């Protein structure tokens, strides 16, 4: 066995009620003038965080949007500059954390993040910016949050449909980390446990979104899966989701959820150790079928058609996917890619 593993410098504060530790986290980092970022929908939560920070908050920017449009990033940078901010607090899902990263990328301002979904962006050095309908992404250490506060109580209001798809988004990170070219034993442990936690918690959450122990398990799983995403190079699944979100505007987490079983069916035969880990974590002998059935039973969309994709879109998707090389446990021909898309379009694995 040979591997290389580089740990990212991340600080995690985890636990119900940990939001109250924000002032200490800011102080620890020497931050006295934080700009609080959120989406418009999560403004009340941003105001709560601002209240906790007291004098250490210099303002709110509540215009975060999906995929970080360049004009939103620019407006937020201006707000940070005008307020004389010495850092940002990004409270919300991947879109808000992405906005914090966009500010950090150009200004170097440190970010504290408080994730309220299972997307995992807070654990990665990956940033994204969308301009003229194209999403650019890159990696930069400057965008990695300095401190991440996970408070499961903040996730009880995440609607069931988003909880489920966001959970499968996290599971997708773990699957691709298990067969990544830069996989390693520590990442595989995190991936397997992350999938196990989420798979056990999601049905409980679907039945009772207020179940705090299940919310805690799910967020712990999301942290582990996010750490896997941050530690490895993603493959075909993330490549396709990036194209479907960036060019066809398909919803991020739902797209991950629908596509995952089909990529699993294609890739796992070429990645036996990853398949074994997922079989253990999901307690199944048939990972693709299990993923499709479990997500459908929890009410997630079953096909790409449901998300608005059509067969004529395949030309553009395959062209973009083939244009730039990406890691994958097996080579993917155009024919295999079209067959995968066709199955996912119809939802052939869904019950
Ligand atoms: P999101 O951040 O877009 O959130 C979706 C909606 O849910 C928003 O309106 C948000 O305000 C709301 N919401 C979030 N948490 C809530 C809660 N607890 N209760 C009620 N409402 C809540 O969704 P997401 O799936 O977390 O993030 C998707 C974005 O993140 C995409 O743009 C994706 O590309 C990016 N992402 C980036 C990385 C990375 O490493 N850079 C990783 C994962 C995702």
From TrEMBL:
UniProtKB keywords: NAD, Oxidoreductase
Keyword presence, Transmembrane helix: no
Pfam families the record matches: ADH_Fe_C, Fe-ADH
Oxidoreductase is among the record's keywords: yes
Coiled-coil regions listed: none
Stretches assigned to the Alcohol dehydrogenase iron-type/glycerol dehydrogenase GldA domain: 9-152
InterPro entries: ADH_Fe/GldA, ADH_Fe_C, Alcohol_dehydrogenase_Fe, MAR
Domain annotation Fe-containing alcohol dehydrogenase-like C-terminal: ranges: 164-344
GO molecular function: alcohol dehydrogenase (NAD+) activity; maleylacetate reductase activity; metal ion binding
Family per record: Belongs to the iron-containing alcohol dehydrogenase family.
Cited PANTHER family: ALCOHOL DEHYDROGENASE, ALCOHOL DEHYDROGENASE 4
Record protein name field: Maleylacetate reductase
């Amino acid at each position: 066995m040979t591997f290389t593993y580089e740990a990212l410098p991340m600080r995690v504060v985890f636990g119900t009620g940990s939001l109250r530790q924000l002032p200490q986290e800011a102080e620890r980092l020497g931050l006295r003038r934080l700009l609080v970022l959120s989406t418009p929908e999560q403004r009340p939560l941003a105001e709560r965080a601002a209240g906790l920070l007291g004098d250490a908050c210099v303002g709110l920017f509540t215009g975060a949007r999906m995929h970080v449009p360049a004009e939103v990033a620019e407006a937020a940078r201006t707000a940070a500059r005008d307020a004389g901010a010495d850092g940002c607090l990004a409270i919300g899902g991947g879109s808000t954390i992405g906005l914090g990263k966009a500010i950090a990328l150009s200004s170097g301002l440190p970010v504290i993040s408080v994730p309220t979904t299972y997307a995992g962006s807070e654990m990665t050095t990956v940033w994204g910016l969308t301009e003229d309908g194209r999403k650019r992404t890159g990696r930069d250490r400057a965008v990695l949050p300095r401190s991440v506060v996970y408070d499961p109580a903040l996730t009880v209001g995440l609607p069931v449909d988003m909880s489920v798809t966001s959970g499968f988004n996290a599971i997708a990170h773990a699957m691709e980390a298990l067969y990544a070219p830069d996989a390693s034993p520590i990442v595989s442990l995190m991936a397997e446990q992350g999938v196990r936690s989420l798979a056990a918690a999601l049905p409980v959450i679907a039945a009772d979104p207020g179940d705090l122990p299940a919310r805690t398990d799910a967020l712990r799983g999301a942290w582990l899966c996010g750490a896997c995403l941050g530690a490895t190079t993603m493959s075909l699944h993330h490549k396709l989701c990036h194209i479907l979100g960036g060019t066809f505007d398909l919803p991020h987490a739902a797209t991950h959820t629908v596509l995952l079983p089909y990529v699993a069916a294609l890739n796992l035969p070429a990645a036996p150790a990853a398949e074994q880990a997922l079989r253990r974590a999901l307690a199944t002998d048939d990972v693709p079928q299990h993923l499709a059935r479990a997500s459908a039973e929890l009410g997630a969309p079953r096909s790409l058609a449901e998300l608005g994709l059509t067969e004529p879109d395949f030309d553009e998707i395959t062209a973009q996917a083939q244009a730039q090389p990406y890691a994958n446990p097996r080579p993917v021909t155009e024919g295999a890619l079209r067959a995968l898309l066709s199955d996912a379009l119809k939802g052939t694995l869904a019950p």
